[in-house]
Design goal:
The complex is a heterodimer of chains A (332) and B (329). Chain A is α/β, with parallel strands linked by helices and 332 residues long. Chain A has 12 helices and 12 strands. In chain A, the strands form 2 sheets. An 8-stranded mixed beta sheet of chain A has the order 6-7-8-3-9-10-12-11, with helices on both faces. The radius of gyration of chain A is 21 Å and the shape is globular. Chain B is an all-alpha fold and 329 residues long. In chain B, helix 5 runs antiparallel to helix 7 and helix 9 runs parallel beside helix 10. Classes of the chains: A alpha/beta (332), B mainly alpha (329).
């Protein structure tokens, strides 16, 4: 049994502008100890997907309209709220994007760490305190015992993200969801934080879902990748396969947009246009207006989810052609 | 159990903040300590704080000291002195000679004005503080719950506040006091507490709700929810402490406001009654004799004004200290 199995998840938001289908029928699996990357532009539904998994969608205006989230075979979406609360933090933990704002500015670091284990592991104050210090040491906070009594504003961004990781891992969750954990950090710290997540993941065997829009991060960290666009999965493959031979024009566009440090200075490639307004999607492929390959059928009919290999799927009318092209291009 | 040995290299860990001397920079300076430092720099606020502390201490131990030294209580009416005029001017004895016994003179019945002003301070401050505490407890919880839960519940709760708000609250207090008019002065005082407390929390609820509305969408609340913290705990452990700045400021400004209302009600004869005294009731007594015995009005009046000034200065100073971005200079 997979650790996590998401089946046809749909999360909608009622807005003044109409119904926004932020996540519309996505399915994926995550095995124990594996890392899954979810990439996509802003507003493609990456974060909403993960908030839906632990039922943190603000309701209203949001609502999970359908689907299943099987965690160890148990459907989280049909559990009572109290049971979900016991899973959060204990078995599924989350790291957020902006470490500057995701710690409570009025609580000491130690207090915030202690809250987790007191709540989930039934630690006494003293036990929780020792555990908090051990966790801070684990994530590489120097002089952890003295610093545990600081307030968040006394820590730098990288240190705060370490604290967030310590917090997320303090109950040894089975699944760690990292929502753009390095976006707000500068490049050298990014590398340290990613390395830390990687090391801890190997030691504890935690599965990780890594949300990011940085393809470099995905390449170095993940086993599988999902490319999301307009609330749909556009392509799904093993990481190596996806980078080597993408089967979707959108993925190709994304890969081409990554600046190449070895290239001559010149114009950077960018995918033309903007992501579509999810509240007013036209029939047909949501990427059609920006796609270099788009033909008449793309604007008329919604594309099929094509199986390229058992492990590689792509949502495109021309998935096979695109895939063959990229495989050939690699050989050449 | 995650073993501590999964440490990443210390040089890596320290690299990002080499500018910080780990040995020195370890004691937590909380936001409160910063605010306190800023408050001490504000001269008017420090003056206010000193006066408030002084008046409070004097009110509490003053009447006891007077009892010890001169041997009378604030409500002691001398029986041996049967002169027609018993209201002595300040520093004057029964025969017009200089005396330290009554530094503020006496009232119509011959009670020592100084002791009465101090005792009045006790009751005035007490009314102000208790009503403010009530407004803190009810207002903060009510506002925080409404703000955090949001949606229909928030709407309902705040419409109730709006309805209560739109009632002219002085009239509500007067009606309450008139309806349940108690026979004993202490009963009357209790009624006053209830009446003032029950209307004083409305603004507090609005302020806290507003704060919580802007705070609840911050990531740390989402992070707390993602760690499985219960709603009650999020409201009272995570959100309420973050609203404390404005709450403290507003509370300090509520105390003088309530004291003024109490004085007003006592002035109308609806509040504190003799032999108990508050600054308002003393002023009410004094105003009747203002032409002949001006000291009966001047002393309680000036004391009250000074205290209210000081509380307002303190409140303003606290606002500047707790919210440095708001500072106007």
């Amino acid at each position: 049994m997979s650790l996590l199995e998401v089946k046809n998840l749909r999360t909608y938001f009622n807005t003044d502008d109409g119904l926004v289908k932020a996540v519309d029928g996505i399915s994926f699996q995550l095995e124990r100890g594996e890392t899954l990357g979810i990439v996509g532009e802003s507003g493609s539904g990456k974060s909403v997907t993960n908030l839906s998994i632990i039922r943190l969608i603000p309701e209203p205006p949001g609502r999970i309209a359908g689907g299943e989230v099987l965690f160890n075979g148990e459907d989280i979406l049909s559990l009572p709220a109290e049971a979900v609360r016991k899973i959060r933090g204990r078995r599924i933990a989350m790291i957020f994007q902006d470490p500057m704002t995701s710690l409570n500015p009025f609580m000491k670091i130690s207090k915030q760490l202690m809250e987790m284990t007191e709540l989930h592991l039934g630690h006494t104050k003293a036990q929780a305190y020792e555990h908090a210090i051990r966790m801070l040491e684990t994530v590489g906070i120097p002089d952890a015992r003295a610093r545990a009594n600081s307030y968040p504003h006394e820590f730098s961004g990288g240190m705060r993200q370490r604290v967030m990781i310590a917090m997320a891992l303090s109950c040894e969750p089975e699944l760690l969801i990292a929502d753009e954990p390095t976006t707000a950090l500068d490049v050298t710290i990014q590398a340290q934080i990613l390395e830390l997540i990687k090391t801890l993941k190997q030691k504890t065997g935690t599965s990780v879902i890594l949300i990011t829009h940085d393809l470099g991060v995905v390449a170095g960290m993940t086993d599988h990748v999902i490319v999301m666009y307009a609330g749909k999965i556009f392509e799904q493959a093993r990481t190596k396969e996806l980078f080597a031979s993408p089967g979707n024009p959108y993925t190709k566009g994304l890969l081409r947009s990554v600046p190449d440090p070895t290239a001559e200075q010149g114009k950077l490639y960018q995918i033309p246009g903007l992501p579509p307004d999810v509240a007013h999607l036209k029939p047909g492929c949501p990427f059609a207006d920006r796609c270099e390959r788009a033909e008449e059928i793309c604007r008329r009919e919604f594309p099929p989810f094509v199986e390229l290999t058992p492990d590689h799927h792509s949502l495109c009318h021309f998935a096979n052609e695109v895939y063959v092209e990229s495989v050939n291009a690699k050989r050449a | 159990m995650i073993e501590p040995e999964i440490k990443i290299g210390p040089e890596e860990a320290v690299a990002e903040d080499t500018h910080v001397d780990a040995g020195e920079f370890v004691r937590g300076t909380s936001l409160w300590r910063d605010a306190w430092r800023r408050l001490l720099k504000n001269k008017l606020a420090v003056f206010g704080l000193l006066v408030v502390v002084l008046v409070t201490i004097a009110s509490i131990i003053g009447p006891l000291l007077i009892k010890k030294i001169f041997g009378f209580t604030p409500d002691y009416i001398p029986t041996e002195n049967q002169q027609l005029v018993r209201s002595f001017p300040p520093f004057t004895g029964p025969n017009g000679e200089f005396s330290w016994t009554h530094p503020m003179g006496t009232d119509n019945a011959g009670r020592d004005q100084f002791a009465r002003v101090l005792q009045g301070g006790q009751i005035s401050l007490f009314v102000g503080i208790i009503a403010t505490l009530v407004s803190l407890v009810i207002g903060v919880s009510y506002g925080a719950v409404a703000g955090y839960l949001g949606g229909r519940i928030d709407n309902l709760m705040m419409r109730i506040v709006d309805v209560l708000y739109s009632l002219p609250y002085i009239i509500v207090v007067i009606v309450l006091l008139a309806m349940f008019r108690s026979q004993t002065p202490r009963g009357q005082l209790t009624l006053l507490f209830i009446a003032l407390g029950s209307v004083s929390w409305l603004t507090m609820a609005r302020i806290v709700r507003g704060q919580v509305l802007s705070l609840k969408n911050q990531e740390f609340v989402m992070a707390a929810r993602a760690t499985g913290v219960s709603t009650t705990r999020i409201i009272f452990r995570h959100l309420v402490p973050n609203t404390l700045g404005p709450v403290i400021v507003y509370a300090t400004l509520t105390i003088p406001q309530i004291m003024l209302t109490e004085a007003f009600l006592s002035f109308l004869g609806l509040g504190v009654q003799a032999p108990l005294a508050s600054w308002g009731s003393l002023a009410a007594d004094g105003v009747q004799n203002i032409a002949i015995f001006p000291w009966q009005l001047i002393f309680p009046g000036v004391t009250m004004a000074l205290t209210l000034f000081s509380l307002n200065f303190l409140g303003d100073g606290l606002r500047d200290a707790l919210d440095p971005q708001m500072r106007t200079t």
